[in-house]
């Protein structure tokens, strides 16, 4: 029976809007409640010794296709949250390096990008914990971009030998370890838009019926304990 902690945990926080609708609230208030819950989960993950935590904040379609008012609220939430993290005593005390992956640098307004670049810069030298956000992220887009880069590399170098390391080096997640454990809330047991499809090849999966704003630190701890009970064979 495995007792080790997963080194890299990812969270797909589904159910914010459904949580809000059930309470007669505007959908974007579900995102606000989810952000508050994430702060609690982040502290729990740190207390438990999780070294690398990734969080899917938005997909490309979330930004392109959802109502403008909801997207505007979400972008303001990102701006305020990253500003808060850049100034957080906890982040600096615990030496948390923050990475942000995806198309946010092309799709987000300058006022939001400024805060994201700021927190990346002020935490770039840290190496005790790693906190990664996927914003305007789509796993299919990530793989397509990697394939394009590799094609250009092959054309330039004339070397058609492509190894696993070649693929990894050209992903958005090139600096991240493989995913050990993926948690998805919201009651729908599936993966969206090819989320980190290369990195979750050997990941254990955990699906919670709770909407993310109702998924608290105790639920996160329960999920981690479930992981620790599992036996990982890796094809052996």
How does this model look, in words?
The chain is of the alpha/beta class and 236 residues long. It has a single domain, classed as Decaprenyl diphosphate synthase-like (Undecaprenyl pyrophosphate synthetase, 3-Layer(aba) Sandwich), CATH 3.40.1180. It is built from ten helices and six strands. The protein has helices at residues 16-22, 27-48, 60-65, 68-86, 89-93, 104-107, 110-122, 139-157, 164-169, 217-229; strands spanning 8-12, 52-56, 96-101, 129-134, 181-184, 204-207. The protein has a six-stranded parallel beta sheet with strand order 3-4-2-1-5-6. α1 packs across α2 (27-48), α2 (27-48) packs parallel to α4 (68-86) and α2 crosses α10 (217-229). The longest helix has 22 residues, at 27-48. The protein is globular and about 60 Å long. The relative contact order is 0.20. The mean pLDDT is 94.
Mind sketching the topology for me?
Layout: E1 8-12, H1 16-22, H2 27-48, E2 52-56, H3 60-65, H4 68-86, H5 89-93, E3 96-101, H6 104-107, H7 110-122, E4 129-134, H8 139-157, H9 164-169, E5 181-184, E6 204-207, H10 217-229
Parallel strand pairs: 1-2, 1-5, 2-4, 3-4, 5-6
Helix pairs in contact: 1-2, 2-4, 2-10, 4-7
Order of helices and strands: EHHEHHHEHHEHHEEH
CATH superfamily: Decaprenyl diphosphate synthase-like
Number of domains: 1
The backbone outline, from C-alpha atoms, is globular
Question: Which descriptors would you attach to this protein?
Answer:
6-stranded parallel beta sheet, alpha/beta, Undecaprenyl pyrophosphate synthetase, 6 strands, 236 residues, globular, single chain
